[in-house]
């Protein structure tokens, strides 16, 4: 019997406050407060395209771990639309470009990436399929994203609107 794999230790993220040495301007604080966690533009774009092609779904199911942006419980499919900054797209390069509050942002984003892997593993171990799209993929290749979702739920004969392809 192979040894049981143990998860990596969780990355700890320091609390963002002046006592911990993190500083920000009022304008930056306001801008960061405006960033949404759900119903982002790429997410809405994908949802509208899916709905337009006849694919019905559930949004942001709170009782599902990781709160998938779109879920198909019947097909055991969870779809996430990840922001390229928050979820670490091309992280090794992008990590070098962070100039301020590096001691906060680097562990924060690395923990997000680690959590994404934990959620993927959780769903896959339960027989689910996980699709993750980057925000820029949804914006630039919407038809491809819609087709991947349709293929996963077994809708081979979807009538795709040519504007999505």
Percent range for helical residues?
25-40%
In terms of DSSP E residues, the strand content is: 5-15%
For the record, what is the CATH homologous superfamily label?
A: VSR Endonuclease
CATH-defined fold name: Endonuclease, Chain A
The N- to C-terminal Cα distance equals 48 Å
Low-confidence stretches: 159-163
The major β-sheet equals: 4 strands, mixed
**Largest sheet: spatial strand order:** 1-2-3-4
Count of structural domains? 1
Structural class assignment: alpha+beta
Please report the number of helical segments. 6
CATH architecture: 3-Layer(aba) Sandwich
Rg, rounded, reads: 18 Å
Instruction: Name the CATH class.
Output: Alpha Beta
Question: What gross morphology would you assign?
Answer: globular
- What is the overall pLDDT average? 84
What would you say about this model in short?
The protein is built from six helices and four strands; from the N terminus they run ααβββααβαα. The chain is an alpha+beta fold and 165 residues long. A four-stranded mixed β-sheet has the order 1-2-3-4, sandwiched between helices.
């Amino acid at each position: 019997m192979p040894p049981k794999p143990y998860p990596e230790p969780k990355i700890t993220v320091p609390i963002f406050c002046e006592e911990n040495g993190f500083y920000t301007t009022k304008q930056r604080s306001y801008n960061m407060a405006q960033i949404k966690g759900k119903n982002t533009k790429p997410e809405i774009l994908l949802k509208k395209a899916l709905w337009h092609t006849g694919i019905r779904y559930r949004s942001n199911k709170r009782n599902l771990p990781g709160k998938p942006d779109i879920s198909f419980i019947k097909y055991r499919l969870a779809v996430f639309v990840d922001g390229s900054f928050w979820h670490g797209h091309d992280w090794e390069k992008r990590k070098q470009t962070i100039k301020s509050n590096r001691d906060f942002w680097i562990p924060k984003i690395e923990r997000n990436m680690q959590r994404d892997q934990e959620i993927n593993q959780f769903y896959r171990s339960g027989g689910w399929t996980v699709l993750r799209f980057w925000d820029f993929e949804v914006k630039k290749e919407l038809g491809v994203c819609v087709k991947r979702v349709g293929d996963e739920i077994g809708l081979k004969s979807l009538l795709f609107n040519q504007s999505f392809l």
